[in-house]
Write a structure and sequence with these properties.
The protein has an eight-stranded parallel beta barrel with strand order 1-2-3-4-5-6-7-8, surrounded by five helices. It is built from eleven helices and eight strands. By secondary structure, it is α/β, with parallel strands linked by helices.
Length: about 280
């Protein structure tokens, strides 16, 4: 089986009210997993105090781990985006995951309508490597899967070098998207986004937000361990490891693990695929 699998993690900053100190212990554990990079999520609320930028800077300066800062354009103006980019540049951040972000009553479309608009603005600013998002089961607001592939190609042509996929639980969905994107001329790396099922309540919420479906094998697992959270966590982590190993057998060379800031999740999955990395 081929070696040299890229393995990265996603974490989120603490709430503003908690302060940056809350995540220091988490970062110690995550750094020991030795990921190729760690992406740090973003929200307008966090951005007011720059927690995404601060966590990225701390990761790079303290542990020497490359950081990818998420940046969303929903509810922002071109001016506010440029202020964020200036802040990230001063902090030494080199990579940004460009996203539209969720639209809410508070975060409506302003100057930038799509993630592609944000990518163009980052390009105009310069000095950043740009990551993009992709959706193995299609974006929940997309009119068709073909349109999703067209958008991937647009992002690819705007300079996105790596796509991080939304979570999925059936490898066939990711592999279908990969094949469609490749046929459309997408040349960027496609990194498979894996979220282990460690809590029934948590996964139901994530599925509702993302629109991801739960295939029969995962549904049976949830049903079997619905009254035993400890056993469900173990089974869910094993399911994620099997998912990754199956993807690697199909030629996937990059995995992005959604950790939900759980150090045990990162350690367990890393140990389960150590021979592939």
């Amino acid at each position: 089986m081929s070696k040299n699998l890229d393995f990265s993690l996603e974490i989120f900053p603490p709430k503003i009210s908690d302060g940056i100190e809350k995540i220091y212990g988490c970062l110690v554990g995550m750094s020991k997993v030795a990921p190729d990079f760690i992406s740090v999520t973003y929200s307008a609320g966090q951005a007011k105090k720059g927690l995404t930028t601060e966590v990225c800077q701390y990761l790079q300066n303290t542990y020497g781990i490359p950081a990818v800062a998420h940046l969303t354009c929903a509810g922002q103006t071109r001016e506010s985006i440029n202020l964020s980019l200036e802040e990230m540049k001063k902090a030494g951040i080199k990579s940004i995951l460009a996203l539209r972000g969720d639209l809410t009553a508070e975060k409506k479309v302003n100057d930038l309508v799509h993630a592609t608009d944000l990518i163009e603005q980052i390009n105009a600013f310069g000095e950043f490597d740009i990551y993009g998002a992709c959706y193995p089961e299609g974006h929940v607001e997309s009119p068709s899967f073909d349109r999703d592939i067209q958008v991937m190609k647009m992002k690819n042509d705007l300079g996105v070098k790596t796509f991080l996929s939304q979570l999925f639980f059936d490898n066939k969905d990711f592999l279908h998207m990969r094949d469609m994107a490749t046929a459309a001329g997408v040349t960027a790396t496609l990194s498979a986004g894996i979220m282990p099922i460690t809590s029934a309540k948590q996964i139901v919420r994530m599925v509702q937000l993302s629109g991801a479906r739960i295939p029969s094998k995962a549904a049976k697992m949830l049903s079997k361990y619905e009254n035993n959270e400890v056993a469900l966590c173990k089974a869910g982590l094993d399911y994620a490891v099997r998912q990754i190993r199956g993807l690697v057998r199909e030629g996937v060379k990059s995995i992005h693990l959604y950790t939900m800031n759980n150090i045990h999740t990162a350690e367990y999955v890393r140990a389960g695929i150590e021979d592939l990395i």
